[in-house]
Design a protein that fits this description.
The complex is a heterotrimer of chains A (260), B (197) and C (97). Chain A has 260 residues and is mostly helical. Chain A is 71% helix and 0% strand. Chain B has helices spanning 3-9, 23-49, 51-58, 63-88, 92-122, 131-162, 169-195. The chains are: A mainly alpha (260), B mainly alpha (197), C mainly alpha (97). The A-B interface holds A 172-174, 176-178, 180-181, 184-185, 187-188, 191, 194-195, 198-200, 205-206, 210, 213-214, 254-255, 258-260 and B 16-17, 19, 22-28, 31-32, 35, 38-39, 42, 46, 127-128, 131, 134-135, 138, 142, 145-146, 149.
Chain lengths: 260, 197, 97
């Protein structure tokens, strides 16, 4: 069945629309940050004001076009938050968990996502600006993007708690523990407020590269698990059924391995 | 005695086949071990680049205290393993005592760690004073966070043991598996920070 | 027998504590008459012994010795991966200097 046909007849079509929007948003996000604006991997914290002017100049059109796209389409960031909130509502736990997650991530999006877009666009808009101000915008952008992880960290813990307490089997328990791993890597970014160089700076091997590797894996996993949830969901309030055999995804490799 | 307890007390029975705790918690053990290993690799790589600077800063550490801390955590692992054995034998009061001993040893470790940090900072060895100290405070700090989570996990064990209507063997074993990872990571951290030259 | 399981756990504890105390001797012997020196031998030995303790904790304290073969193999593989990763980072770091 084509996607179009299945969407017309499928009662879960709203959920599928949100899921595809989530995938589209994360793709846009990756292209904007890593390719168009080249703000990720982050610039070096130890640049002088004059060097930051050069940094902005190198990325002038990328910053303006890339972040203009984010300002227009960035609202799609709501889709992943909404879908995860839905997944928590589908669990047997109190709705307070879902609302907490929704509020935390909605708030976190402002410093953790939008501030860097604004700061870097302001910097790119007037290349002739005082280098000290450009330096300020550069620091403000990167520190707000990386250094505000604390709010995301608590959100991960809320999701983890919900998953581990859930009796509806919405997500496998190992994903609850993966939330803990993700939350702990978000602690790792906190020292970036102190260090301008080294492994714990905002571009450091530990604070950025390892962090992003873990976060990247975590994101791919939860997008896959959300898809699995939508496939299995009966749109009820009780335990989520297993997938019918024909469409069943492979069992988690660890489950099969550990059973021997 | 249930079948599970029989399996673990009768050496004649083939004991292959019991996964200690949830398989999902083993996913956490493996994943978090790999994350910590990546932090250790970064430390070792940079240490090898600046051997003398790292060596000099490392000399500020108190090795006997590190050994005491290691023995405290190893003993806590022994205690929680004994607790699981007692749970399997349905001796829940004894299991409760052993879980409390585990917590006590964890608190003693934390106390030693805090004292060590205070002493180092007092002597001018801070998070930012040298590259070695940056790694030292980062790794011991991350470990301490895992330890604090461990106290919550021990709380779950004690909560389970408190009421005969609870006492899920799987939950208790899962929690004990988590506690052991706190010890596993420390064993590596101790060798890398205190001994490696 | 319960007592043999208890005894086995105690023996495991004695072994890991003994290895820990051995570090004290290793540390003292590493210094050249009180002067700090770097040492590849001490580094490799320290890492090796740490992984021996790691495996004992996994096998004996975490009860993997009674687990399905797949979990035993997976944890052994983890030990190998950690050793290889740590030693590689160290030797690559030395080579790049």
């Amino acid at each position: 069945m084509s996607i179009g046909a299945s969407l017309r007849t499928d009662p879960k079509r709203e959920l599928w629309f949100v899921w595809y929007s989530t995938v589209a948003f994360y793709s846009l996000y990756s292209v904007v940050f890593f390719v168009l604006t080249r703000t990720q991997p982050p610039g070096r914290p130890w640049l002088t004001p004059e060097q930051t002017v050069g940094w902005f100049a190198d990325r002038h059109w990328g910053l303006l076009v890339g972040f203009a796209l984010i300002f227009v389409l960035g609202g799609f960031s709501a889709t992943s938050i909404a879908l995860i909130t839905y997944s928590i509502r589908r669990m047997s736990v109190s709705r307070a968990y879902a609302y907490s997650y929704l509020i935390l991530y909605a708030i976190a999006a402002i410093p953790g996502f939008l501030f860097i877009c604004v700061a870097m666009t302001v910097g790119a808009m007037r290349p002739e600006r005082d280098p000290t101000l450009m330096h300020w915008l550069y620091d403000f952008g990167f520190l707000s993007f990386s250094g505000t992880m604390g709010v995301f960290l608590v959100g991960s813990l809320v999701w983890m708690a919900a998953i581990l307490l859930d009796k509806n089997g919405v997500f496998p328990r190992w994903f609850g523990y993966l939330n803990l791993c993700n939350a702990l890597t978000e602690v790792v970014i906190a020292p970036s407020w102190i260090f301008q160089r080294g492994v714990l700076a905002w571009n450091g091997v530990i604070a950025w590269w390892i962090d992003v590797a873990v976060f990247g894996m975590y994101t791919v996993v939860f997008i896959y698990l959300l898809r699995s949830l939508i496939q299995r969901d009966d749109l009820g309030t009780g335990p989520v059924p297993a997938l019918p055999p024909a469409a069943a995804p492979r069992a988690h490799p660890l489950a099969k391995v550990l059973a021997g | 005695m249930t079948a599970i307890e029989d399996v673990h007390t009768d050496p004649g029975v083939d004991e292959d086949g019991h996964v200690p705790g949830e398989g999902d918690m083993w996913f956490f053990v493996v994943f978090e071990s790999l994350v910590f290993t990546s932090y250790f690799c970064v430390y070792l790589y940079y240490r090898a680049q600046h051997e003398h600077a790292f060596l000099k800063a490392q000399s500020a550490l108190n090795l006997p205290l590190g050994i005491v801390e290691t023995i405290l955590l190893l003993t806590s692992s022994w205690a929680i393993a004994r607790c699981v054995q007692e749970v399997r034998a349905a001796r829940y009061r004894s299991a409760q005592r052993l879980a409390m001993v585990t917590a006590g040893l964890g608190v003693a470790f934390l106390g030693c760690k805090l004292a060590e940090w205070v002493r180092l900072i007092g002597e001018g060895h801070t998070f930012t004073s040298s590259e070695f100290m940056q790694h030292f405070f980062f790794l011991t700090g991350m470990h301490a966070i895992h330890l604090l989570i461990g106290f919550v996990v021990l709380g779950v064990i004690l909560y389970q043991l408190a009421d005969p209507r609870r006492r899920s063997h799987q939950t208790i074993e899962t929690c004990s598996t988590y506690w052991h990872t706190v010890d596993l990571f420390w064993v590596l951290i101790f060798a890398l920070l205190y001994i490696v030259r | 027998m319960e007592t043999s399981a208890k005894k086995r756990l105690l023996v495991a504890w004695v072994v890991v504590v003994a290895i820990t105390v051995m570090y004290l001797w290793m540390d003292r012997s590493a210094d050249d008459r009180g002067v700090l020196v770097t040492s590849v031998a001490v580094t490799v030995a320290a890492i090796g012994l740490a992984l021996v303790k790691f495996r004992i904790i996994v096998r004996e304290f975490m009860d993997v010795c009674h687990a399905p073969p797949a979990l035993r193999r997976m944890t052994d593989l983890l030990v190998v991966v950690i050793v290889v990763a740590l030693l590689s980072a160290y030797f690559v770091g030395r080579a790049v200097t």
